[in-house]
Structure formats: structure tokens, C-alpha cells
Amino acid sequence: MFTRKQKAEQMKKIIDSLSAEEIRHLCRYQRTSSLVRKAVRLLHHKDEIFTLPYGDEIDYYYTYSLFGLHWEPRLTKAKELLAKPDFLKELFNQLHYRGDYSTRSNLKQFEIIPIQTSEKTIAMFLASLTQRDKRLLKAYEEEPKFQVGAIIQMRANIGVDAIISKTGYSSHWQSIGRRELSKLKNKTFMVLGNDVCTDAVTYATVYSYTQSQGGSRLYKVLPIGETKTYYITEKFMKKCRTKAVKDARK
Question: What is the pLDDT of residues 121-144, one digit of tens each?
């Protein structure tokens, strides 16, 4: 356990290490994250707070702001992401089209190539992610459960938000209707792509990740014998085990 004095010194050291550019990024993220909002408050009132005799406010900011308990885990994660620039670009693409509005707005700050961004800036960005966007991060960190060419079917519990297509009257992607879903439920599909990204904002649920079923990663699929393609959420796909498929593989 750290003493209050040690907690104060640790937080002050983090604040003093920030560049003007990193502080600018941090202040913008405060709209979307409680951790960041409290860190910004600490930043603005550091001369007042750090001159106190290490009272309760030190414990509060150490526990509930980005500059305390949460700093090292976020920084470690940021280092991991920066070591994988291709994945980081893919993640940014997914967040740009599928993330919350606030995250899409925050991404506009990253006008330079992600690999040139500082670890601290990425750590701050991670702290600003909503629950929806954390699900996207988790989904794309894991290996895809289905490869191109795989034959799949939908799970029985699939809902309209788990299969999307581009609307004919706008550039948006969104869930299909219940009538169309009902027609597709008993069809067999071929996977055409497992790292696909929509080319416009997607309005559909982003599902959480589970080890057995996967998460919110999207797959481009084609119903066998048809021409219209769809994007299906990984969590609601399963390997096709029908007799016809087994015979075809012999």
C-alpha cells in the first residue's frame, strides 16, 4: 500500500511529464470519461491539491482519476497497441465507423500515423472509450473464429442487430428487418471476409465478447445460391454441420 505522500508524488510525476500536446488531448477527452474528467480537474488544481497535507483528496484522485491506479494499466496497453501498428490502424477504422459518436469525434485528433503518436496519448484515448468501444477493442484483439471459405449458419438466438447491410436509400449500414431475418435464418452461408470494415457509419448493437462464441467482429457472408452479401456478427455464427456440407467435403 502506498502512503498518501507516495500517491501524491506519483500523480505529480505523471502530470509533470505531460507535454502541452498531450494535455490538449487529455482535456478534449473529459467529455466522455469520468477517469479523464477527474484527471483534468486534478491537473488544473494541482497547485492547490498537492500543497494540502496529503488529505482525503489525494486518496480520491488516486483511486478515481486516470493519474492514479489506472495509469500504468492504460500505459501498458498503449505500448502493446503501438507495437502493432497494423492492428491499431484497423482498430481506428472500426471505431471510426462503428464506435460511439464521441469516440468518432475524438479520433479526429489522430491526423498523424498512429505509430507516431505517443504512448501517453493512446493511454488517454483508451481511458475515454465507452463500453461499446471497449467491446470493439476486445473483439478485434482476438483471433477470428471463422476463416474465408468457411461454411456457416446463424445461431438460433440471432437478432436483427446482428446482421447488417447497406440501406438502399442512404450510405449508412444498419440492421435488416425481421421479415428478411426470418428468411435468412435457415440458409447456409459462405464467409467471404473476416476482417471487413463498413465504409460508412453503422447503426447496430456492438455485442460483448465470450470465449466460446466470440464477439462483435463482422464477417462478410454470401448466402449459398444468392448474390446479395451481408455482414454477420461473429457471436451469432456457427459452423455448418448439415449432411450436405459434410458430403461435399468428402
Answer: 999 999 999 999 999 999 999 999
Q: How many C-beta atoms lie closer than 10 Å to residue 221's C-beta?
A: 27
From 122, 195, 201, select the one nearest 167 (Cα to Cα).
201
Q: Give CB contacts under 8 A, 24+ apart, made by 82-91.
A: 82/114, 82/115, 82/117, 82/119, 82/122, 85/113, 85/114, 85/115, 87/140, 87/141, 88/114, 88/115, 89/114, 90/140, 90/195, 90/197, 91/136, 91/137, 91/140
Which residues on adjacent β-strands are paired with residue 176? none
Count of CB atoms situated within 10 Å of the CB of 138: 14
Provide the pLDDT confidence category of residue 111 given band limits of 50, 70 and 90: low
CB 223 within 8 A of CB 188: yes
Strand 173-175 to 202-203 pairing: parallel
pLDDT bracket for residue 42 (50, 70, 90): very high
Q: What is the rounded CA–CA span in Å between residue 219 and residue 232? A: 5
3-state SS assignment for residue 66: coil
Positive or negative torsion for Cα 13, 19, 23, 25: negative
Please tell me the pTM assigned to this model. 0.83
Give the three cell numbers for residue 129: 472509450
pLDDT of 79 higher than 60: yes
Residues whose CB is less than 8 angstroms from the CB of residue 160 and which lie 6 or more positions away in sequence, other chains included: 175, 176, 177, 178, 181
- The per-residue DSSP string of 135-153 comes to HHHHHHHSPPSS-TT-EEE
